[in-house]
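Hi support team,

I'm filing this because I wasn't sure whether my run with uridine 5'-triphosphate finished correctly. The job status page said complete, but I'd like someone to confirm that the output block is well-formed before I use it downstream. Pasting the exact inputs I used:
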Amino acid sequence: MEYNSAVKVLEECNQSHLLKFWNELSETEQTELLAQLDEVDFASLNRMKDMLQEDSNEVDLSSIEPSPVIELTDADNAKYIPIGEACIAAGEAGVILVAGGQGSRLGYDGPKGCYPVGPVSDASLFEIHARKILAYEIKYKTEIPFYIMTSIVNNDSTIQFFEENNYFGLSKDRVKFFTQGLWPALTQDGKMILDGKGHIFMSPDGHGGLLRALKERGMFEDMKARGVKTLFFFQVDNPLVNICDPAFLGCHIADEADVSVKVCAKRDPDEGLGVVITNDEGKNSILEYSELTDEQKNEKRADGKLRLLYGSVAIHVFSFNFLVKEADADMPIHVAHKKVPFCNDSGETISPEKPNAYKLEKFIFDILPKADKSVNIAFDRAEEFAALKNPTGNDSPETVKSAIIDKTSKMLEKAGYSLAKDDNEYKYAVEIDPAFAAESSLQEALGQNFELICDMYID
Ligand code: UTP
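And here is everything the job wrote out:
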């Protein structure tokens, strides 16, 4: 953007304060500020400002029902698994990982995907994910493109990590990094914030930024060129995720769904999972945890179970055509009150002690009601979900590693090995390289090879 257009655009949207230090900036800083302005989503700015005026997130649930949830039976699995496998084998499955978040709760210095969670190997989250994909590529002699969304903040370090680790055995040509958009934070009166004399505070626009980013960074062309029709979606912080689960893919394909959602029973009413509901237009949707009142969270059915029992853990399957169709959809904007560094009148950067601004984000699950057809499929959380969010306590490295040990130990026991326990906890850390066998055939592979495995992987 040229300086004169910037003056005009900013005047029109009441943001001229962003140029108040213009004359004090070096030429390079001026160019950088104009480049930043080019990135600002001015079209969404008014919607963002409107969001700040909305006073309550509370939703009237009186006309809202929990969504139907499918529990796959053995007969269902027998029907769906071959469909999912055929999709993978034909090279029609792709994988999308959203890894553009800032991981602020974990407080790790680097992309969250680089965090070591392997209880024996110290394998990173990225390594575990990549090698699960590799296992399917090997099993089905196929190619599975891996699309990784980063943000400008962690893109270079993410790519460098994959480079240094030789893409964990995957072909570099099939690992595609692309950056999501950035959004400014706003003050209560809707002003963007300078965090330096020539720099606007911007942060990733939420995992819902995926749709726009896929389109703008050329990923749809890549998918199309490779013949990808179905995309498995997940988040970086869950090492138990069953990437490309053939039963899940198969059920999605057989039902001709646009989006499918894996759901599990909430641990307790206060667990921070969004719940699946049928909205007042009869559409399957996910209602964020923070949008529920305590009463709604705790409401019980006649059988004593929670009325809103099933939560989404952000494991989805999307149809390629649906993603393309909805790439420009206006997604709802979610607002969070946060501490944002700002530049005071003297040009010094101040880190506030209390929240002083609103960060705005889009969430991917908000696309769900746009689907003509979507299905919710229940899974066993102990098998497939352990998220890394916090440095200690719930959802921390300790709980994630112990979930990996528990899952692996149970598989080894099922394969015939007996494992020592202390106070009902497994005594030894065990882990299996995910490339050893595709997750869906891991148990069978263990049965055939367990002596070899035990020698190699038990600490
Ligand atoms: P979270 O909402 O848990 O955020 O993201 P986070 O960045 O991991 O952690 P906090 O909240 O700052 O502590 C869930 C998933 O969505 C991705 C994250 O990388 C993670 O895989 N995400 C989140 C994005 O890709 N982009 C975003 O803007 C936000």
